[in-house]
Amino acid sequence: MKKNVCMFVWNHFTNDARVLRECTALSESGYNVDLICIHDPNEKGLPTYEERNDNFTVYRVRRYPPLLQFMQKVYRVSLQNKLIGLLIFILWITLMFLSPILVGIITVFALILLKTRLKTVWVRGSIIFRMIARGRQKEYDIYHSNDLNTLPQGYICSKLRFKKKKLIYDSHEVQTSRTGYDSQYYNKSEQFFINKIDSMIVENHTRAKYNEDLYGFYPNVVYNYPFKQKSKPESKVLLREMLNITSDEKILLYQGGIQAGRGLDKLIQAVPLFKSGTLVLIGDGRIKPDLEKMVDEMNLHKKVKFLSKVPVEELPAYTRNGYLGFQVLNNINYNHYSASSNKLFEYIMSGVPVVACSFPEIKKVVEGEEVGVCVDSHDPKSIADGVNYLLENPDIREQMVSNCYIAKDKYNWDEEKRNFLAVYEAI
Fold it and tell me: Which phi and psi angles does 113 have, rounded to 5°?
């Protein structure tokens, strides 16, 4: 009899390669999988429901409460049209005399609209409620929470019931030491739920040891390896034509989130020291405007190009254009220091040598498989030295390309998914 799995993830499920691989592996192994994620009203054409295959369905819950959306629309219209704004004000004064309680309620919601923190609590609380409601609509055997921000949903759905269900906690990050998670709330929240789960998954053995030191048990390890590609694939997106890069100019590639702590500011500072090549950054994120401003101030428009994120299924066709790829995380927390980043293996899968930070999990692969060079990711000169070494030694670089094609038989999801499926078989 097929087992029914309810999986939660706190994103739109448009570029989450790990969750895609896990859901696909389960569905191909006979599990019925429903993935509950968040709908993005700003992304046109994004469905609220889709069937990926016969056993894998995606449900996207509404992001914003309807009342909040209505209030925001009224607020925007009143700002754009003074006459409408005046009419709304007159209506508010009239209602204040007719029904002070109703006006009080409206005022409270208006304050929530204007106060960012209260608005955030309202929006996130509504998302959590909808996820829980969707997760209780069907009879599931196993609940699977990706990261700490969906663990409460998984706990409520699986354990707060007469007949308890199994709960898997799949922690993609080090929740107690990562960017944006400085509050003690996250430490205490994970500590509260950690003894209530049935199984836990982390990304690598460095993080598993950290978890053992913190909580007293060694979780399951499932590495974030990409799907295996065919040998030396030829299909490429015409990236040079898209970005107006000449045929003799080497593409020095970064792909992934444009976020703080990923060494991208140091990378741009290193560009004037490169002997040749154009830096191409594929992705979006909070600090992208800051990096674009930096490029303007340093007058590097001809040497640095930006491209918006692309769907995960299409990304390899972009990656193959790279002469080399960058993975230059900065050591700003244990989450970064312990990473065995997906993009490292995406570069390897496409035969692109890597200039990488010298953190333990990454260094073990880069130097052990001889697929790139490790540098001091906090030092622009060290990054430039690594780039120039590969630019000035094309024979060594070509050997690294060959090593990538050997290594991809080892670092791929076709092999790693056995460890993932074993977690489900165990419970």
Answer: -60, -40
- DSSP lists the bridge partners of residue 166 as 142
Alpha helix ranges (H) inside 36-115: 66-80, 82-98, 100-114
131 CB-near residues (< 8 Å, 6+ apart)? 8, 36, 61, 150, 153
Residue 224: phi and psi, rounded to 5, are: -95, 65
- What distance in Å separates the CA atoms of residue 352 and residue 371, rounded to the nearest whole number? 8
Report the first-to-last Cα separation within the chain, whole angstroms. Answer: 15
Question: Residue length, the chain?
Answer: 427
Angle between helices 66-80 and 82-98 in degrees, nearest 10: 130
Read off the pLDDT of residues 186-231 as tens digits, 9 standing for 90 and up.
889 999 999 999 999 999 999 999 999 999 999 999 999 988 876 4
Query: What mean pLDDT comes out for the span 143-158?
Result: 96
Are 41 and 12 within 8 A, CB to CB? Answer: no
Return the number of other C-beta atoms located less than 10 Å from residue 64's C-beta: 16
In 153-197, the DSSP E strands lie at 166-170
